[in-house]
Amino acid sequence: MLRIKNKFNTERDISGCGLCGIINAKRVKTNGSDIKKAISIEHDRGNGLGGGFAVYGNYPDYAELYAFHIMYDNLPAKTDVEEYLKNNFIIEKEEPIPTFMTSKIYDHPYLHRYFIKPKSDRPDKLFHELGDDDFVVNSVMLINQNYDGAYVFSSGKNMGAFKGVGYPEDIADFYKLEEVEGYMWTAHNRFPTNTPGWWGGAHPFTLLDWSIVHNGEISSYGINKRYLEMYKYNLALRTDTEVITYILDLLIRRHKLPVRLALTVLASPFYQKIDKMNGDKKELFTALRQIYGSALLNGPFAIVFGYSNGMVAMNDRIKLRPLVAAAMGDFTYVASEEAAISAVCPSPDIVWSPKAGEPVIVEFEEKKIPQKGGLISL
Amino acid sequence: MITIDAAGMHYKELNRLIREGIGKGIKKFFLENVNGQYYIGDGIKGDDVVININGIPGNDLGVFMDGPTLIVNNNAQDNIGNTMNAGKILIKGDAGDVVGYGMRGGKIYILGNAGYRVGIHMKGYNEQLPIIIIGGEVGSFFAEYMAGGIIVLLGLNDSDEFDSEYFASGMHGGTIYLRKKIDFSKYSKDVELYETDENDMNFLKKYLIDYADSFNIPSEEIMGKPFYKIVPSSARPYAHLYTSA
After folding, report:
1. Nearest residue of chain A to residue B140 (CA atoms)
2. Which CATH number belongs to the domain containing residue B186 in this structure?
3. Cross-chain residue pair A44–B11, CB shorter than 8 Å
């Protein structure tokens, strides 16, 4: 079983691409029709070779279990992966992911989901004491890397990724997202230019509760990849966006950096800007750049990052990709184009363009009013 | 006169209807329910054609346009007036990034703010003099690699803050007018700041009055404060980037 798989070994993702995100800070749920409508306005930013959605809050009945969405190219892969899952996890429920034939999506892999938790007496306990999250991450890496024809689309709690090859509005119909409800949605319309689009290469890229949709090109991919491999992340999906998801998992979950600081690692201020800072702040930013230089993202990007506590939208340090945000009551919207927001929220309270490298962060529970511009105040 | 309901319409269809209308001699267009359609006014000609746009036009509004006037009553997206040759674009809201990219003639007037990289690679030659006037604030890389034409930044909200970085980097032609004094040493090494003289103001006046009239604001409000002028220090700022002087 141990062999190098994935024939698309030059996978890179540049140019085009459209993204959207919708979050309700009070966890009021909406179905997938708004996010579908918003991303469909950005139809021409993609070319039909990748569309996808992440939704949070969609599995309230299984909120304590890891929801694995797995794509299988062939049925033997399913048999093999299920054997691994049975040996290591308690499977509370498993079923095919509901899909619906549409005239647009006619060729698709087998898609199955599992609501599971790691067994307390699983075999790896003989060798180490991993926490559940760490074990899930290891399992995702193992399946993606070693089980031919099987890829984990998502592995978080009370969330899921629904993605594939096609325009995002057609992918939404394929999964009938009008019937799925969540309090946070992100969406992506892909325009791969160098390599084939394939189901595993569509956004969002997720791990545990982290999900990323991305427009741009990570030219630091090689450095980021080597850095992540030192921490045992396997980059099996051969696309630049994957590194962002794993970097955030490393920084936030494993190194316990606050979200805001982790984001300044991805889009660190330039040294000339750090030089102008004072005292503690200067020391902090210098330390972050020195320690996490290999986690810095270079190249143009706009990302929407979903996690269990909220959503972040951010640009690269010199704003080489578009990003617009708007707020209306408890809803915050982000998108590549204002028209996408306007399609679902015609008169927002405020609309603004986030500045380069300064994240828009919206978290649940204690309601935060999104502020214009950056939120970096330390 | 023609009214086109653009709700749900693809940009190809919308632009086809506009071109057909111009071909039939229609001079006045009202586009309703526009939302995100790209390339509105792409390459169209006709100095007396006026297109009124309700809704948010998509990227590359007025790209390659050669004469007509576009009036946008809302915000607009990125790449307004890309490589525009002649005509006029009025934006009553805010504009996105890369306004007037490679623009070589005509006017873009923005009442609100504009995003990053306003006037990048804008150029002028003899009677071809592109002009961008922005009422509010701008993002970083303002007038990047500017090679010709005029950009006027009014800052009508009179905020003292000016946090646009990389101001006029690589600028090697044209003129920027600012309606406020900034500590220039902080922003750019490629350009020089001067106070405007009578000649400058006489030249500017007709454009400022045109701008004020376009948005129905009193021109005295705009001209009540002194203007400063920014010109490139060199026509070849990167002549010695890779070689010694």
Report:
1. A318
2. 2.160.20.60
3. yes
pTM: 0.92
- Taking CB atoms and an 8 Å limit, are B35 and A355 in contact across chains? no
CB contact under 8 A, A319 and B77: no
The reported pLDDT for the residue numbered A110 is 97
Q: Are B35 and A322 inside 8 Å of each other by CB?
A: no
Q: Residue type for B40, please?
A: I
Provide the residue ranges of all domains of chain A, joining segments of one domain with +: 18-363
Domain assignment present for B222: yes
Residue among B56, B117, B141, B188 with most chain A CBs within 10 A, to mutate: B56
A191 with A241: CB under 8 angstroms? Answer: no
Name the interface residues of A facing B (CB cutoff 8 Å). Answer: 41-42, 44, 318-319, 322, 324, 337-340, 342-343, 351, 353, 355-356
Give the residue from chain B lying closest to A344, CA to CA.
B35
- pLDDT-based confidence at A4, cuts 50/70/90? very low
Tell me the three state secondary structure of residue A156. Answer: coil
For residues A249-270, average pLDDT: 95
- Residue A194's pLDDT is 60
* Residues of A labelled catalytic: 17
Q: For A310-330, how does the pLDDT look when each residue is reduced to its tens digit (9 = 90+)?
A: 999 999 999 999 999 999 999
- Pick from B77, B116, B141: which is nearest to A338 by CB? B77
For all residues of chain B together, what is the average pLDDT? 93
**A18-363 falls under which CATH superfamily?**
Aminohydrolase, N-terminal nucleophile (Ntn) domain (3.60.20.10)
Question: Considering only CB atoms, which chain A residues are within 8 Å of B72?
Answer: none
Least CA distance to A346: which residue of chain B?
B55
Q: Read off the pLDDT of residues A182-204 as tens digits, 9 standing for 90 and up.
A: 999 999 999 986 666 889 999 99
| Amino acid present at B50 | V
Which residues in chain B have Cβ-Cβ distances shorter than 8 Å to A337? 36, 58-59, 77-78
Which H or E run contains A40?
A: helix A33-41
Strand order in B147-153's β-sheet? B2-5, B28-35, B50-56, B66-72, B86-91, B107-110, B131-134, B147-153, B173-178, B228-232, B191-195
In whole angstroms, give the CA distance from residue B89 to residue B108.
5
Q: What residues of chain B score a pLDDT lower than 70?
A: 160-161, 184-187, 245
* Model confidence pLDDT, tens digit, residues B13-69: 999 999 999 999 999 999 999 999 999 999 999 999 999 999 999 999 999 999 999
**Beta partners for residue A114, in sequence order:** A68, A94
Residue B116 in tokens: 């990053």
Cβ of A337 and B115 within 8 Å? no
